[in-house]
Amino acid sequence: MVNELRRRPRAVAVALLVVTAMVWGTTFVVVKSAVAHMPVLDFLAWRFLLAGVLLAGLRPRALVRLGWRGVRQGLVLGAVLAAGYMLQTYGLRSTPAAVSGFLTGLQVVFVPLVGWLMLRHRPSARTWGSAAVAVSGLALLSVRGASFGAGETLTVVSAAVFAVQIVLLGRWASVEDAYGLATVQLLTVGAASLVGAAPGGLVLPSSLGVWAAVALTAVGATAFAFVVQSWAQSHVSATSTAVVYTTEPLFAAFFAWMAGEQMGWAVLVGGALVIAAMFVLGAGSTGAVALPDPSRAGAAAGGRGDPAAAAGGRGHAAAGSWGLAVTGSRDDAVPGSAPVWLGEPSATDAGTGPTPVQPAGSLR
C-alpha cells in the first residue's frame, strides 16, 4: 500500500474519495434517525468532538508540526464546515434522506461558481448549462407547490457552503499537513456546535442506537473521511474532488431505499438530472486556474498580511494579520508558488507536476 501511494498517489486519492463518498452516503439515513431523538447541535458536538479528540490522541505531534499558520487555516476551514453541517443537518430533519443526498451533491456545481467569486475566473457556458439542468432536477426533486420547503432550502445552501470548504482546502492542503489540518477542522466544528448547544445544556445520546450513530459518524464519516479528504486534495484538484463526490447522492439514495424510504418517479428523474449536470460539468471542466501562494507573492500583493498593498495587487484579498489570502487570477501567479488547480485536466492531476501558468486570457 505504501509503495502504491508513492507510485500512483492520484489514483489512490480518487479511490479513497469514492470510499469517503460511500461512507457519507450511508450517513443520511443514520443521521436523520439520530436527530429525531436528540437536538441537532448536540449530535454534531458529540460527533465532531469525539472525532477530533480521536485524531488528536492518535497523532498529537501532527498539531505541533502544523504550525500557527496551519492552525489558522484549519480554524477557517472548520468554521465553514461547521456552517455547512449545521445547515445540512437541520435541513435533513424535514427532508427525505435521498433528496438530501441529491441536493448535497450540488456542491459540484457550486465549486466552479465559488471559484469564480474567489478567483475571478468566469464559469464557462457549460457550467451555466449544467447549473440550469441541476435546477430543473431540483424542481422535480423537492418543489412543494410553488416553492422549496425549508429543509430543501437549507440543504442547497449547505451544498454551497461545502463548495467553499472544498475550494479553500484545495488552496491550503498539503501531504505533510493533511492529518493536522483535518484534526483542527473537526475540533473547530465540535467546539462551534458545543457553543451552540450550551444554552440548553449538552444532551447525551438517549439510547444505544443513537450512541451507535454518533460512533459510526464520528469514526468513519468524520475522522477517517476528513483525513482522507485533506490528504487527497493535496494530489487532486478541487473540481476533481467535487466530481468524485457526485457518487455520494447515488450511495445516499441506495441506502435510503434499502432502509425502506419510498422514491417516486419525480425523485428518480430529478436525481438523474442533478447527477447528469454534475457529470457534464466534470467532463467539460478543461480550464485550469492557479492561486499563488500568498507567502511567496509579496511583490504582487504587497507582502503577506498587508491590506493596503493587497488592494493594489489584482486578484488578492486583504488578509490582515491572519495571512490567509485565498483569491487570485491567472495573471497573478508568481513563479515558484504553489498553485491549486480548479479545472481538468491538469498536469498535477496526471501525476507529472504543476504545469506553468498560461498567459493571461489563454486556455490550456
Task: Please explain how this structure is put together.
The longest helix is centred in the N-terminal third of the chain and has 32 residues, at 61-92. The protein folds into 2 domains: 2-284, no CATH class; 290-364, no CATH class. With 364 residues, it is mainly alpha-helical. Residues 285-364 have low confidence and may be disordered. It has helices at residues 2-7, 9-34, 40-58, 61-92, 97-104, 107-119, 125-142, 150-172, 178-197, 208-232, 238-244, 247-258, 265-284, 298-301, 307-310; strands at 143-144, 147-148. Helix 2 (9-34) runs antiparallel to helix 5 (97-104) and helix 2 packs parallel to helix 12.
Regarding quaternary structure, what we see is: single chain
Count of separate structural domains? 2
Arithmetic mean pLDDT:
73
**Overall 3D geometry?**
globular
Q: How large is the count of helical segments?
A: 15
Structural Rg: 20 Å
Strand content: under 5%
SSE order, as H and E? HHHHHHHEEHHHHHHHH
Class per helix and strand makeup? mainly alpha
Major beta-sheet overview: 2 strands, antiparallel
| Low-pLDDT sequence parts | 285-364
Measured distance between first and last alpha carbons: 34 Å
Quick recap:
This protein is mainly α and 364 residues long.
